[in-house]
Design a protein that fits this description.
This protein is an all-beta fold and about 200 residues long. The protein contains no helices and 16 strands. It is about 0% helix and about 40% strand. Strands 9, 10, 12, 13 and 14 form a 5-stranded antiparallel beta sheet that branches. The chain has a 3-stranded antiparallel beta sheet with strand order 4-1-6, with no helix packed on it. It has a 3-stranded antiparallel beta sheet with strand order 3-2-5, with no helix packed on it.
C-alpha cells in the first residue's frame, strides 16, 4: 500500500474487517507512506488515511495505491503407491507437485511408531530395500517448496511378499527291510511342516 504526493502530514493504517489495526506507516511531514503486509488471509481489509493532529484538506489531493499478490501454497503429494513389491523391497511413488523443490519421505513398520526419514528427494519415486518378508509397512510424503513445505500426505500401507514354499529335494529311502523303510528329504527353508 502506498500513499504519495502528500500536501500535509498524512499517515496510513491497515485494518482487518473487525477494525483491528494490522500495520501502520507514520512518517513525518509530507514524506510518502507505505505498508507491506505479508501472509494475509483471504478476506476484507480497510485502508485508513488520516492527518497528523487531525490535519485535513478538502481541496488538495494525494495518491493512494494498493495491490495484492497471490502466494502459491505448497501442495500435498497425492497418488501415493507401492509397487514392484518383493519379499524385501518395494518401489514407492507419488504424483509430482507444481512448484516442488524436493520431497521428504518417511517410512516405518505398520505396528511401529518410529519413522525413518529420507530428505531431499528430487524425483517422485524411491526404491526401499532391506525389508522383512510378509510384513506390513507405512509410508508418507511431504512437498518442500521455496521457503515452505506442505503437510504430510495421508500414509498408505503395503505388505511385502511371502517367500515361495520350496519343493523338498534329495528324497531317499534307507534302512530298508522286508517290512519297513526310513524315508528322508532335505530341509526346506521356511517350512512349517511336511506332508508325505
Amino acid at each position: 500500500i502506498g500513499l504519495t504526493g502528500l500536501p500535509f502530514d498524512y499517515d496510513l493504517r491497515l485494518l482487518n474487517s473487525a477494525g483491528t489495526q494490522l500495520a501502520a506507516s507514520e512518517n513525518g511531514s509530507t514524506t510518502s507512506e507505505s505498508i507491506s503486509y505479508a501472509n494475509a488471509a483471504a478476506g476484507t481489509y480497510y485502508i485508513y488515511v488520516f492527518g497528523y493532529n487531525q490535519v485535513f484538506s478538502g481541496t488538495q489531493c494525494y495518491a493512494l495505491s494498493a495491490s495484492a499478490t497471490a502466494v502459491q501454497t505448497c501442495g500435498v503429494p497425492t497418488s501415493l503407491a507401492a509397487g514392484s513389491i518383493t519379499t524385501s523391497s518395494a518401489s514407492l511413488s507419488w504424483a509430482a507437485v507444481s512448484g516442488a523443490v524436493s520431497y521428504t519421505l518417511q517410512w516405518k513398520l505398520n505396528r511401529g511408531s518410529t519413522w525413518t526419514t529420507v530428505s531431499g528427494l528430487t524425483g517422485t519415486s524411491y526404491a526401499l530395500s532391506g525389508l522383512a518378508a510378509s510384513t506390513a509397512y507405512n509410508f508418507q510424503v511431504l512437498t518442500v517448496c521455496n521457503g515452505s513445505s506442505s503437510a504430510y500426505a495421508s500414509p498408505i500401507t503395503f505388505t511385502t511378499s511371502t517367500p515361495a514354499c520350496g519343493v523338498p529335494t534329495n528324497l531317499a529311502a534307507g534302512s530298508i527291510t522286508i517290512s519297513s523303510a526310513s524315508l528322508s528329504w532335505a530341509a526346506v527353508s521356511g517350512a512349517v511342516s511336511y506332508t508325505l
